[in-house]
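Good morning C.,

I know you're traveling, so I'll keep this short. The sequence:
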Amino acid sequence: MSRKALGILLLFFSLQVFGEEIVFTDSEKSLLEAFTPWPTVIPADPGNEYSGLKWAEALGAQLFNDPALSADQSISCASCHQSSKGFSDGFALPQSGVAPHVRNTQGLLNVGYQRWFGWDGGADSLWAASLRPMLSDIEMGSDIEGIATKLRDTTYLTEALEQNDLEIAALDDETVVVTVAKFIGAYMRTLASGETSFDKFLASLGVPDIEVRYPLSAQRGMKIFFGEGNCFVCHFGPNFSNGEFHDIGRPFFTGVGQVDPGRFTGIKRVNNDPFSLAGNFNGTKKEAEILKTTSVKFRQVNFGQWRTPSLRNLELTAPYMHDGSLQTLRDVIDYYAEIDPARLHSKGETILKSFTWSEREREDLVMFLKTLSEK
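The tokens, ready to paste straight into the viewer:
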């Protein structure tokens, strides 16, 4: 008997003896189809006439790493969004910036698949989300005039614009800064992650003669994720995010007498943002994109809601939650397993409930989540 045949026989024997064979039902396979294919087509950045243009993406990458966009020229976008950490920073709360932050730095991988940007969805496009930190008094601390003045003397920018029939001298300060934000948005749209062991395993289900090494622990965790845990309801689709906002009972107090209302604030912000898709700087004027912004209304139920993050490459983006308060994936699983629905704010999420998961089940879920990261 060959070594390969012996290995297959031993594997079959161990599965039967120890009851570890994982079988996926037709209904489970049907559900899993909603999580393919990956990678998939990234939509254009709404309102961004430079989205998808290679020269604009390359220019955006340079600007993303340029500290000239900050008031004291010491902070770039890359200061907080580091490529080695999934374009997050590895801290519970950001350590760069003009003043202390109360929100965790979100990773930017696959950000182009989202409909709203930031933990509170306070921006409706990638370019508006790029502009916000430049002008924030707690992040880069700059202003329109200051940024435009520095950019007019930035050789790589002026030369790139001239090569593409744009003259920076003909643009007013506000247009200069918005245009630069659109270049950065065009670049951030390209920050996509690749195929994972989960994707390879999913592609092999039901296909004869395809052998994919995928941990049994991860398969058990997958059963829980798509079954009893109902995790897939919010973390839905190939990007493992429904792009919406949910109250999962996390604290919103940031200090004595201070609160961060989450989506409640974000909707107010986008409704009053001169750089939203409803404003004068929308470069594509697509009615469906504008309607997304003009139709959103804030309600009390939005208080304490946060945008559902993608789970792809989440091993790179610890710690977790909007305030960085959960250090590990196991912490996240334990939180959901032991959640008290009575603590949910307002109406909360009625789908949430506590579970009596065993130690093995919790570790299985962690293992499954780890297979959503590239190795």
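Safe travels,
E.
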